[in-house]
Amino acid sequence: MPRAAQTAIWFRRAQWMLDQCAARFDDTFTLRIAHEGTWIVLSRPEDVKQVFTSDPRTFHAGEGNRILLPVLGEHSVLLLDEDAHLEQRKLLLPPFHGARMQRYGDLMSEVAAAEIERWPLGVPYRVRPRMQAITLEIILRAVFGLGEGERLERLRRELRRLLDMLTEPRKLLLPLILGPERLARFGSFPRALERVDGPIYDEIAERRRALDLEDRSDVLSLLLQARHEGGDPMTDREVRDELVTLLVAGHETTATALAWAVERLARHPDKLERLVDEVRAGATEYLDAVVSETLRLRPVISLVARRLTKPVEIGGWTLPAGVTVTPSIYLLHRRAELYPEPERFLPERFLDEPPGTYTWIPFGGGVRRCLGSAFAQAEMRAVLSELVKARALRPTRPEPEPTLRRAITETPRHDAEVALA
Question: From CA 237, how far away is CA 242, in angstroms rounded?
Answer without folding.
Answer: 9
